[in-house]
Amino acid sequence: QVQLVESGGGSVQAGGSLRLSCVASGYTSSRTCMGWFRQAPGKEREGVAAICTNYGSTYYAASVKGRFTISQDNAKNTVYLQMNSLKPEDTAMYYCAAGPLRANQLSPGVYNTWGQGTQVTVSS
């Protein structure tokens, strides 16, 4: 059973940076992809970025492309989300998830294992 634990959230001013971490414990298949999602109050959960290391693929939502970078350190079983040039609209609870490779890698429905989330708040 895979467990995911996120950390690194916090409060920053617009234009600032944060790096989120997601540590995976338990068995993870080499075919597993990892994703970051976010959910603001009253809104649906949306895909932010995903990485499928064994397939050499990364995916980004248009709203974060060029500002956010997803990476993975297999030796540490950790996935990172580097967030730069943060905007107030990036404020949300951020979740890490694990799932298989699928056509729409930023769709929450693809993922079957989720962390508890870490809050990111960006003030103007």
Write the layout of secondary structure elements.
Blueprint: E1 3-7, E2 10-13, E3 18-25, E4 33-39, E5 46-52, E6 57-60, E7 68-73, E8 78-83, E9 92-99, E10 113-114, E11 118-123
Parallel strand pairs: 2-11
Antiparallel strand pairs: 1-3, 3-8, 4-5, 4-9, 5-6, 7-8, 9-10, 9-11
Characterization of the model:
The chain has 124 residues and is mostly beta strands. The protein has no helices and eleven strands. It has strands spanning 3-7, 10-13, 18-25, 33-39, 46-52, 57-60, 68-73, 78-83, 92-99, 113-114, 118-123. Strands 2, 4, 5, 6, 9, 10 and 11 form a seven-stranded mixed beta sheet that branches. Strands 1-3-8-7 form a four-stranded antiparallel beta sheet, with no helix packed on it. It is globular and about 40 Å long. The mean pLDDT is 94.
How do you describe this structure in short?
Helices cover 0% and strands 51% of the residues. With 124 residues, the chain is mainly beta.
